[in-house]
Amino acid sequence: MLHQFNYLAPRTRAELHGVLAAEGPAACLLAGGTDLLVNIRAGFMKPRVVVDAKKVEGFSGLSWSEREGLVIRAGVTINQILRDARTSIDFPLLVACGRDLASHQLRNRATVVGNIVNASPGADMTPALLCLRAHVTISSKRGEREVPLKAFFKGVKRTVLARDEVVDRIVVPAASKGARGDYFKLKRINGHDLGIVGVALCVDRDGELRVGVSACAPVPLLIEGLDADAPADEVVAAVMAAINPITDVRASKEYRRHMVEYFVRRLLDEVRS
Amino acid sequence: MLETENRESLRQVGRSPERHDIEDKLTGAAVYASDMDMPGMLHAQVKRSPHARARILRVDVSRAERLPGVRAILTGADLDYRLGLYVVDKDILAKNEVRHFGEAVAAVAADTLVIARQAVDLIEVEYEVLPPILTARDALAPGAPLVHPDLGKYSYIEAVFSPQPGTNIANLTRCRKGDIDKGFAEATWIVEREYTNPSVQHVPMETHVVIAQWKTGDRVELWTSAQSPFTVRDLFCHAFNLPLSNVHVSIPNVGGGFGGKAGIHLEPLIACLSRKAGGRPVKLQATREEEFSLLPCRSGLTYRIKTGVLADGRIIAQKMEMFWDAGAYADYAVNVTRASGYSASGPYEIPNAWVDAYTVYTNKVYGTAYRGFGHVEFFWGLERHMELVAQTIGMDPLEFRRLNLLRPGSITLTGEKITEHTGDVRKCLDSVAASIGYGELTAEEKAREARTGFKIGKGVATLHKAPAMPSNTATAVVVKMNGDGTVLVNVGLTEIGQGSTTAFAQIAAERLGFPLNKVRVTVEKDTDRDPYDWQTVASKGLILTGNAVILACQDLLAKAYELAGQALRANPCDLDHDGEKVFVRHNPDHSVKFSQLALGYAFPDGSGIGGPLIGVGRYIAQGLTNLNKETGQGLPALDWTYGAHGVVAEVNPTTGQYHILKIASAYDVGKAINPELIRGQCIGGMVQGLGTALCEGYIYDQQGHLLNPSFTDNKIPTTKDLPDEIECIIVERAQLDGPYGARGVGEHPMISVAPALGNAIRQATGAELTHMPIRAEDVWRAMNRHDPVETWAAKTPAGSDRTIHAAK
Amino acid sequence: MKINVTINGAAYEREVPEHVTLLRFLREYVGLAGTKEGCGGGECGACTVILDGRAVNACLVLAAEVDGATLRTIEGEAVNGEHSELQKAFSRRHAVQCGYCTPGMVMSARALIERNPKPSVEEIKEGLEGNFCRCTGYVQIIEAVLEATGQPAANQEGSHA
Known about the structure:
Chain B has 19 helices and 31 strands. By secondary structure, chain B is an alpha+beta fold.
């Protein structure tokens, strides 16, 4: 990097919280670095200190418990998700989302937590996480709090995190285990690309149908409370009412709308067959 | 071909040995300019304009100068040199005015890259922002602001180019054949339409890198990633009015060029920084973002074609107008205009033709040479147009093409006569059509349609190109024998990845009759050491330098025979040789080894004769002429390489998403020196052509800011973007003056990929695409007759881009 | 800060500013210039190295992060002056033209083969998706990986018409 900064690698949560409280806006958290370092290089972020979250005790590892569910700690990379046998069986929607995220090299570094904290409207993992009713555990010097993912995003690249807060882990509840569904991502090429739009659809064990959409609003969207047997037109109407895509260099809003509808109908066909 | 030997007895040529230049590339040991460090070297950074068009009111470097570690700063006011390959229109750093987003306005050399960057950020520039001209149409409108008000005062190459002072036209190339009005009067059908391409970037994997050292006595050392050390040296000396022997240019391994590293680019600026820094070497490595907008790109094009056709389907007249959106400086664009102008009608016979090709200045990143030299751009329009004409008159597009192809006896646009040996375009076209099963779907393809709901379409497109080069382009080769009888070949032609190193080794081994492992061709280039070659561009290297290699080998053998004759007391005409020795043909035991001759021969008593064996060969393009500026008539073409593509495309009729099931490409290469090298060019060029078709293109906003200055939004194809099936077909109709009958194919694989795809998509869905690139959304819009998206800043000069006139 | 790292089996200790990327660290502080910069932003893969057994873009890793880690770069692929089977296959199949993407491409292929010893064509495409090549068009590279893993593709040398 041509921008100069210091590097800290705290070992415990207490240390991490202390550093963030002390440094304030001069500090940026580093997980996979695939967003942070790109932003620093481009001059969008100019931290005085970069705080590596990966060496904090308790920040690594993907684990499952019947009580909590799938616990994705801050250091878990996308490829770790893809490699995990249980996740492939119990949460195939997560695998579907992760598979088309960036490239293999980037997936070895990019973290699930980093993806949601970066809070791009097109954040690749969010459609699946939203559909699966994930919630976020946030920690700081002041303790821990939990926020449902659907309430985590406030705007383009903005979240509910206070300056001194860090996402400790994302939890996909046990109730979402076995939810059926799939994810489609529109790209400009078959190779690695951002999502022009991303749509995930799932039906959980209780028969509720949910749709997660990225890149069609300032924040990733969740459309929930639909019935698993609802007519396709009704599902489409609900999703179309929720999204508000823009025209940019990647696609026009008309095409984005068209493709979201197309994806929803195909996902419905797939989950119902 | 230069050699008339029995082609069946070839031992090296025609095979595919492993490449000779990649051992070090595979281990990381190959040195590129970015890997080089010189003692005392400084690092440079450039300050660039955020505006597309602005007056520079004030440049304040005082804060930057005070930063410790800064050794030199330059602004436009410090330098009074003008650059320009053909029209001398560019300052080294913008003076008074910036003409495109990303243009360099100041440069810093400092002890470290970090300090140089900090210094650049401390330079203050005050601009008066002006409204930019962003389309060729706006630039040609009466009363348009002038990108170059002083165009009339610039020097330029008068024999070849025609700038129009007082306008935004940097060059106008004309071609007139027959009587266009009479031709249209005779036509039964007249079909007219316009086609557009945006600018694209070469995207070499290695960006531009220069190390320059301006020493005492105005002697300059340059290490650069470039496509010719001689072009860099000669243009540099011309700009600074230095004798050629003052400047030494070295080129290590080059990480791709594709035309973007032809000519001269950052060398003058970095050399001036070195001079200002007291002669310390200075290095600049362009970032990828700088590669997109500091360095030049490929011009955009609007191509309007009006074709008159007789009742039987033969083309009788064609009017072609090209509006090249060349950006802020003329660079190579004026020559791209010229070379495209004389080639504009493709490999078809046009009895009455009219070409007006304009190079238009706009306030955008400027166009330079790019693989295909205009042909990728204009063949998009031409081959989409041939399809349209065929559809309009009710003829099958393949049959229409076959009917109108050039054949022996045809006369080209410039008055050149096609012969038996020009090349077999018909065979190329027929081969690809057969390969894709053109004209109908197989049972399997129909079943696939039924199963998927997708539509499958098949399209073809032809291509041709001759090298765009000076009519007296020349090259030379030196072959030196080492003391052990192996040879070292010095070639000025630069290896930029295309494989010439290996091809020349094969040609040399063939001509010498040596095993391949006795021949080494040097990879790095050096103006002090290597014999002259013009540039690695234009697909002329294999022909011209290949011939020179043969001649140099002949010369070496002649000298070896002369010396051997003395050693053996034999008549040279009675001698023969193999890989090890020269012997008397009728008394083969009477021989002398090459290793005994290589450095001179010593008789048994110790006395010596002769000297080191060195063969020299040189070759110049022959019989070519400049083009008449009014009529475009002349003989510009060293050779014509013909080709064709056939594409099978599968399209989702609901979304416009598509996939290429198969692409078949055929080229008449005359003689395949190394078939696997050709395959590498064939597939590599095709994929680059696919990029241009699928997803590449500069996007500007209405203020002229480049909205996609990085890989984030300027995508290129990856492994996952390949067609399912790729076939490369080699046709060999010998080039009589080519080495073993070979002609070049370096640029051609990129040409016509896009229209073959566009034709297949039309055949599948009826979608008429006239803009490039062809994104899924563009197909969707075309299928549904929605207006195309205007994000490419490509408004057409005539105001309408879908004008079709049918029967009279 | 001081970092200790094992590169291609050899131990290195270096003092490095904390903002320096792993890519710059390798090229400027360790003297291993085989790993190239193509874009600096994690898009092109030219800087691919193997970090603790996984392929990563060195331009998006800080040198500071690799203290105590194990790295492999292109310089470690050939052993005792001899190309690996993978490198030999690249050479036989003409999978290199300008060579600038090659170090990253070989490292990506090496990482792929380690996690999947007999990758299919689709798996190779997936594994090398993050490595741009502008020269070859990828096909000969894919054929080289197939050959190196004992699955040689049918000879598709350009057919003559």
